[in-house]
Amino acid sequence: MMIYSVVKRPLFTEKGTTLKENENKLLVEVDPKANKIEIKKAMEDIFKVKVEKVATIKQHGKRKRWGKSVGMTSPRKKAVVTLKKGEKLDFIEGA
Asked: What stretch of H or E contains 40?
């Protein structure tokens, strides 16, 4: 798997912001087929940071209704990436 297809996008949520400020952890959406080793390598190669640990979360699609029709939201996989001490990564510079 190519490293640029592993990490899809950063997730800016209230919980993710708290993890980043207090525990030096980043919350990102990743490819559902990617494993922890691939996620760690991709983060280190793309962003030039040292990764200590990776935890993954699978989020299943939910049933949603739009009037009479019923559908599903897309399933996704998230990763909580713990950076080593002294490492820092800002997705939004100057904000």
From this structure: helix 36-47
